[in-house]
Specification:
Helices cover about 45% and strands about 25% of the residues. The chain contains 17 helices and 21 strands. Helix 9 packs antiparallel against helix 10. About 30% of the residues are buried. About 5% of the residues have low confidence.
C-alpha cells in the first residue's frame, strides 16, 4: 500500500468516526431508552420490595421526589401499554388447585387460566430405554407453550388477558378470577367443577371495558398435544380439531396433514382432541366465527401436534357475559352424548354406514358382552362368535355355491380334456355348462362382499373405542395398541421395532385357510394355467402383506381377525363335511338340467361376444 492509499484510507476512517460521533444519541436520549426498556421490570421490583415490608415493622418508608417521579413515569408507561388494564399489569403469579373425584385442576392467577389438569383415573404409558412399559400420571393442558387468552382491542391497543394478574377467590370446587380496571370496570372469569364429572362450568364477564366497535373480542386457544399413547402413529392419525357450526353436522380439520379452516358461520362447540382424550368448549351463545389451524410435528418432536382455535366473541358494547361448558377428559361415548349437540361424533368411529354400525350396533353389543363376561378379550371372542353366527346364512350360501361348483368337476374335467388346445372354446363351453346346471360361478364371492361394511366398521372401532385403551388380554397389555410380544433390536421399515403375536397368529390362520380353499379352486379352475399360477401366488402373498400392515395395528383388531379366521375355518369344514348333502346337490343339478330354460339377455350377450371372439381368432389362424 503506497502513501496515497494510506492517506485516503485514513481520511475515510476519520470521516466515519466523525459521522458516528455526531449521530450518537444524547445522554438524555440514552437515559430515556433505558428507562422505557426497564420500566415494567422496575415497577415489579418495586412491588416486590414493598411486599417484603411487614405491617408491624416500625421502619418508616419515605418517598423522595425522584422516587415519586419514577413511579409516576412507570404508571404512565403501563397505561400507554395496557390502557384501562394497567392496574392488573403487574403482580405475582399464584397457582391454585381445585379438584373433584375425576380431575385435579391447577389454575394460574396470571391469565386466570388452567395450566394443568390431572386425570386421576387414567395413566399414560411410556417406554424406557429398554423398551419396557412404564405408567405415569396423565395430564392435559400442561404445556408451558399453551395459551388461553382473550384479546381486547381498546384505544388502538391490543391487550391479552394472559399478561394480566387476576385476584383469585376460591369457594369449594369453584374459583373466580377478577381484575379491576382503572375506569371502574372489571374482567372476571369463573370456573366451577361439577362433582364426579369431567365438566367445568365456565364463564367470562366484562363490564365497562372500552372496546373498538369494529373489533370482536377474540379467544386465542393454543394447545400443544402431548404424546399420550404407545402407538403414536395412530394417535397422530386420530388427533385434530373437531367443531360444529350452528346450522350443520359436526366436522373436523385434517387428521393427517397441516390444515387451516376459516369458519364464517357461528360455532356451537370446538374441541381439541387426542386419540382418546379431548378438551372441548361448548357455548350457550355461539362464537361468531373461527379460524382453526393444525400443524403436524415430525416423529422426533416432543409434541404430537399444535392445534390453534381463534374464536370471535360477540362485542356487546363493552359489557357482556359469555357462558360456556368446558369438558376436559376421555372420549367416552356416553359422557359426550350427555353433553348434547352431537359431541359424541368426536370419537372417530367413521362416517356414513361404518360409523352408524359402530355407534348403533358394535359398541352397544360389545359393552353388553363386556359386562357379561368381565373381560375385554373374552368380549372380543364373544363378539366374533356372534358376528360369525349372524353372518352364517351368507356364509352357508357361499359354501353351498362352492359345493355346486365342486359337483360339476367331472364334467368340467371332460371339457378341459376335449378343448385343451383351445382356451377360448373351453371358457365358452364352461359358461354353457354353468347355465345348463344353474350354477353361478361368482356365487361364492358375492356373500363376502356383503360382509365388507362390518369389516370396515370394526377396522375403525378398535383403535377409536377408549374401552380398549390399556385393557390387557393374555400377552397384550393394551388392546388399543399393538402387542409387543417380540422386541426387535432396531426399527425395521414397514415393520417397526416389534413383532405382534396376534398378527402372526392371524397370518398363519389366513395362510391355512387359503391353502384349504386353494384345493377347491384348483379343482374347478377353467382359466389359463399361467393366470391360475399368478392367482395362487397372490393368494399367499396377501397374508404376508397383511402381516406388515397389521403388525402396528390395534391388538384388539388382530385378535378379532384371528378368532374370526378360526371360526371361519371351523364353519367351513363342518358345513362342507357335515351340513351340506352332496348327493342332494347332484340331484338338484340334474333336476335343473331337465327344466326348460330362458337365457337372460346378459348371458346371451356374453355368449355372442365369446362366439365373435372365437371367430376372430379362427380367421387369424387361417390367415397365418
Amino acid at each position: 500500500m503506497d502513501r496515497k492509499q494510506m492517506l485516503g484510507f485514513g481520511l475515510i476512517m476519520v470521516l466515519l468516526a466523525a459521522w458516528l460521533y455526531m449521530n450518537q444519541p444524547s445522554e438524555a436520549e440514552r437515559a430515556e431508552i433505558e428507562r422505557r426498556r426497564d420500566s415494567i421490570a422496575n415497577v415489579e421490583a418495586q412491588n416486590n420490595q414493598d411486599a417484603t415490608i411487614q405491617p408491624n415493622e416500625s421502619a418508616t418508608i419515605q418517598n423522595t421526589p425522584a422516587d415519586s417521579a419514577q413511579n409516576a413515569q412507570n404508571t404512565a408507561l403501563l397505561s400507554q401499554t395496557f390502557g384501562v388494564f394497567a392496574p392488573a399489569a403487574t403482580g405475582e403469579k399464584e397457582i391454585i388447585t381445585v379438584e373433584n373425584e375425576e380431575l385435579k385442576v391447577l389454575f394460574s392467577s396470571k391469565g386466570g387460566r388452567i395450566v394443568d389438569v390431572l386425570l386421576k383415573n387414567y395413566q399414560k404409558v411410556i417406554e424406557d430405554e429398554n423398551k419396557k412399559e412404564v405408567k405415569v400420571p396423565l395430564r392435559l393442558l400442561e404445556d408451558n407453550k399453551d395459551r388461553f387468552e382473550y384479546i381486547f382491542h381498546s384505544n388502538n391497543l391490543e391487550i391479552s388477558s394472559q399478561d394480566l394478574y387476576f385476584s383469585p377467590t376460591v369457594d369449594g370446587s369453584s374459583i373466580t378470577f377478577r381484575i379491576n380496571t382503572s375506569n371502574g370496570g372489571y374482567l372476571e372469569q369463573t370456573y366451577a367443577l361439577q362433582p364426579n364429572s369431567f365438566q367445568i362450568d365456565y364463564s367470562i364477564t366484562w363490564n365497562n371495558i372500552p372496546t373498538s366497535s369494529n373489533e370482536d373480542i377474540t379467544l386465542n386457544w393454543l394447545t400443544y398435544l402431548d404424546r399420550l399413547e404407545k402407538n403414536t402413529t395412530f394417535e397422530k392419525t386420530y388427533s385434530t380439531i373437531h367443531y360444529k357450526s350452528s346450522d350443520s353436522r359436526p366436522s373436523y380439520t385434517s387428521y393427517t396433514g397441516d390444515d387451516e379452516e376459516e369458519i364464517e358461520s357461528s360455532l356451537k362447540w370446538v374441541s381439541h382432541s387426542n386419540q382418546f382424550f379431548n378438551t372441548t368448549l361448548l357455548t350457550d351463545q355461539p362464537f361468531s366465527s373461527g379460524n382453526l389451524t393444525v400443524q403436524n410435528y415430525d416423529e422426533g418432536h416432543a409434541d404430537l401436534k399444535k392445534l390453534q382455535s381463534v374464536l370471535a366473541l360477540p362485542n356487546n358494547s363493552g359489557s357482556s357475559t359469555f357462558n360456556m361448558k368446558m369438558y376436559v377428559g376421555p372420549n367416552d361415548y356416553d359422557n359426550l352424548k350427555n353433553l348434547g349437540h352431537e359431541l359424541e361424533d368426536i370419537i372417530p368411529f367413521g362416517w356414513s354406514i361404518f360409523g352408524t354400525i359402530n355407534r348403533r350396533v358394535i359398541r352397544p353389543l360389545f359393552n353388553f358382552l363386556d359386562g357379561l363376561v368381565g373381560s375385554k378379550g373374552l368380549a372380543i371372542l364373544a363378539l366374533t362368535l356372534l358376528v360369525k353366527a349372524a353372518l352364517y346364512p351368507i356364509t352357508y350360501k357361499m359354501l353351498y355355491s362352492q359345493a355346486k361348483t365342486q359337483a360339476l368337476k367331472p364334467r368340467m374335467d371332460q371339457l378341459k380334456e376335449k378343448f385343451k388346445n383351445d382356451q377360448k372354446k373351453q371358457q365358452m363351453e364352461t359358461m354353457k355348462l354353468y347355465q345348463e346346471y344353474g350354477v353361478n360361478p361368482v356365487g361364492g364371492c358375492l356373500p363376502m362382499l356383503l360382509q365388507m361394511p362390518i369389516w370396515f366398521a370394526l377396522y375403525r372401532f378398535f383403535p377409536a373405542a377408549i374401552e380398549f385403551r390399556q385393557a390387557s388380554f393374555w400377552w397384550a397389555t393394551d388392546l388399543s395398541s399393538y402387542d409387543s410380544f417380540f422386541i426387535l433390536p432396531a426399527d425395521i421399515p414397514f415393520l417397526g421395532g416389534h413383532i405382534s403375536l396376534f398378527t402372526i397368529l392371524y397370518t398363519i390362520s389366513m395362510i391355512g385357510y387359503t391353502y384349504y380353499n386353494s384345493k377347491m379352486m384348483e379343482s374347478t379352475a377353467t382359466g389359463n394355467a399361467e393366470m391360475m399360477k399368478m392367482m395362487k401366488i397372490m393368494q399367499y402373498a396377501m397374508p404376508v402383506m397383511f402381516f406388515f400392515f397389521f403388525n402396528t395395528y390395534a391388538a384388539g383388531l388382530t385378535a378379532y381377525l384371528f378368532f374370526s379366521n378360526l371360526t371361519t375355518i371351523a364353519q367351513t369344514v363342518i358345513t362342507k363335511n357335515v351340513v351340506i348333502n352332496h348327493d342332494k346337490i347332484n340331484e338338484e343339478l340334474e333336476a335343473y338340467k331337465k327344466k326348460p330354460k330362458k337365457t337372460s339377455k346378459f348371458r346371451q350377450r356374453l355368449e355372442d361376444a365369446m362366439k365373435e371372439q372365437q371367430k376372430q381368432q379362427e380367421l387369424k389362424k387361417k390367415k397365418k
